[in-house]
Inverse folding.
């Protein structure tokens, strides 16, 4: 029985499933059953070996063999315990509420009877779980975009509660085919279905896109989507980078749950082991907190901008936009020492990131240390020699300080590596006139210097 189960779960599944060599992810979990049954054979073999050693010791009346059998038994027991000792932390899910809370955070702030488009497995299955198992927000219809490429799923959305407004007949659904556009793109069945649902709904029900949905899918509606945290809501007015600051702040402060991600005090929570895929999902929280920080900065609330940006970095310490803008917000709030320390830490951790060097240079220039700024630029070019803005900053600062030879060195330095850069070649060609025309006076560094 054990051998048959092993054969069916190993060679049998290999033949039956017939996986290709271009799967979207590792498929070893399909063979979990084979691992378990193989482990049973290991146990049977180990116990048989010990039994044989003990029997041989009895036949020969040899104490040495008995001792060897006991020692071998102890070693085998220890070997069976070691994997649990070293891997328990990675496999213990007893306090891991991250997937559940992720689903809660995506559904809790939606309006009644909403329709939300999700992308794939990771952002859909937790939502189905919390709806079906915890009976939470059953009024919301989760529409999986991956499945919207199939006829049967479109029919299911149309026919099963809570129903999605779809006016197509079975024949029309079956006739859906990908359509090439004049721009050379392809409108897949999912794109046609989404567009149909939006038109038929006609603002009678709220429609959302999860932040995990790729840009190419929601791009046609980009000017009508408003960020609310883990979702973008379709709204009847046009704008660029629309953000509902009220909903964002309400969600973060009153609704969202972050067990295993942040402590109740809002600090990083390391009590739960997080896989690479799990950690990658946190960037969505980081982006939402960062967007709220940008709104705060736009409204002149520099303290609020700093706090929200720091919050984004608690979700993802490597979030580049948060790291770049935190220093800018420190400068706007006249906290120059903190800005210096922040950018110094960043260039120490990622010396090849030219944007972080630009931030450090901007602080030095802001506090009137142009000489230190120039020295920093020379150092930065050694680590990030192909970052164009470093040479541009060097040219400008040198020219403002009257160090024209140094200014020309920065231009020539860039052209030596990128001789086809027309803008820099034009500066070199008209160098004297530019110096006279543009640098008769010195100004402080713009607040967003180095960000563009």
């Amino acid at each position: 029985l054990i051998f048959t189960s092993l054969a069916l779960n190993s060679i049998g599944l290999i033949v039956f499933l017939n996986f290709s060599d271009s799967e979207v992810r590792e498929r070893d979990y399909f063979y979990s059953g084979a691992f378990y049954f193989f482990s049973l054979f290991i146990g049977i073999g180990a116990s048989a070996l010990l039994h044989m050693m003990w029997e041989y010791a009895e036949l020969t009346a040899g104490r040495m063999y008995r001792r060897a059998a006991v020692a071998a038994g102890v070693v085998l027991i220890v070997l069976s315990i070691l994997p649990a000792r070293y891997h328990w932390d990675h496999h213990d899910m007893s306090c891991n509420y991250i997937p559940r809370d992720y689903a809660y955070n995506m559904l809790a702030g939606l309006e009644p009877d909403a329709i939300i488009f999700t992308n794939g497995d990771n952002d859909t299955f937790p939502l189905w779980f919390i709806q079906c198992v915890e009976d939470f927000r059953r009024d919301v219809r989760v529409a999986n975009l991956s499945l919207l490429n199939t006829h049967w799923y479109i029919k299911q959305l149309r026919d099963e509660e809570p129903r999605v407004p779809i006016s197509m007949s079975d024949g029309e659904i079956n006739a859906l085919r990908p359509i090439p556009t004049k721009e050379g793109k392809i409108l897949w069945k999912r794109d046609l279905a989404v567009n149909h649902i939006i038109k038929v709904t006609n603002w009678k029900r709220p429609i959302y896109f999860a932040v995990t949905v790729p840009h190419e899918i929601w791009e046609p509606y980009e000017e009508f989507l408003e960020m609310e945290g883990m979702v973008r809501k379709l709204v009847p007015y046009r704008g660029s980078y629309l953000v509902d600051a009220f909903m964002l702040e309400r969600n973060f402060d009153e609704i969202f749950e972050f067990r295993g991600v942040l402590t109740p005090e809002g600090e990083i929570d390391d009590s739960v082991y997080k896989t690479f895929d799990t950690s990658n999902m946190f960037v969505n929280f980081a982006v939402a907190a960062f967007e709220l920080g940008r709104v705060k900065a736009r409204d002149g609330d520099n303290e609020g901008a700093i706090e929200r940006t720091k919050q984004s970095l608690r979700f993802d310490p490597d979030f580049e936009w948060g790291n770049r803008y935190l220093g800018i917000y420190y400068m706007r709030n006249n906290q120059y020492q903190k800005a210096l320390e922040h950018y110094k830490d960043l260039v120490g951790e990622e010396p090849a990131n030219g944007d972080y060097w630009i931030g450090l240079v901007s602080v030095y220039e802001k506090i009137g240390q142009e000489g230190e700024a120039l020295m920093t630029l020379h150092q930065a070019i050694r680590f990030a020699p192909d970052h164009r803005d470093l040479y541009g900053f060097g040219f400008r600062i040198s020219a403002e300080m009257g160090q024209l030879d140094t200014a020309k060195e920065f231009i020539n330095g860039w052209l030596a590596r990128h001789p086809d850069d027309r803008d820099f070649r034009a500066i070199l060609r008209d160098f004297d006139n530019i110096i006279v025309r543009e640098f008769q006076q010195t100004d402080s560094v713009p607040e967003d210097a180095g960000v563009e």
